[in-house]
Amino acid sequence: MKNKKNLRIVLLLAMIALNIGCDQVSKSIIRNKVDYNENINIIKDHFIITKVENTGAFLSAGNNLPDAVRFILLSILPIIVLGYALFYLLYKINLPRTIQIGMCFLIGGGIGNVYDRIIYGSVTDFLHIDFGLFRTGIFNLADVSIMIGIGILLVNSVLRKVPAKVEDVG
Question: Do the Cβ atoms of 114 and 75 come closer than 8 Å?
Fold first, then answer.
């Protein structure tokens, strides 16, 4: 039984590390190979790589806050929340597998962005999608991990609330 618990913890930590690793490797490549505001068209003008540094949160929210407030809100608070989430994930052994996977994506993406804030003072964003009606801000793979995690958790939540069909036995 203890081996099964240890294997679960190793697999969860590996999934988190994979999310962090993909994010950090992609950002390192962008930092070293792409100039600021350079546009590299991957799919015509629809999928573009462009390097920007974001000192705020999602879509630069909080970018103009005083440095101390921004550090507390975008570094210290997320570290506390991510630490609690990691503790909860590792020690709450009866979580459904989908919740565990969703939390790994959320935690991995969160750690990737917090790491950037602490080490570089900003987060490197570089992906932009523009299909006319559907247009994103510039984001990174940590943001993708976070959104996948949120999506998994939302789908899991909705599916758990949908009652199973009851067969008419009449």
Answer: yes
Closest CA to 140 of 119, 118, 107, 116: 116
Active site residue 143: yes
**Which DSSP helix (H) or strand (E) runs through 131?**
strand 123-131
The phi, psi pair for 96, rounded to 5°, reads: -60, 150
130 is catalytic: no
3-state secondary structure of 46: coil
pLDDT digits (tens, 9 = 90+) for 125-158: 999 998 878 888 899 999 999 999 999 999 999 9
Q: What is the mean pLDDT of residues 2-31?
A: 95
Q: Which of 35, 45, 67, 125 is catalytic?
A: 125
Tens of pLDDT, residue by residue over 117-127, are 999 999 999 99
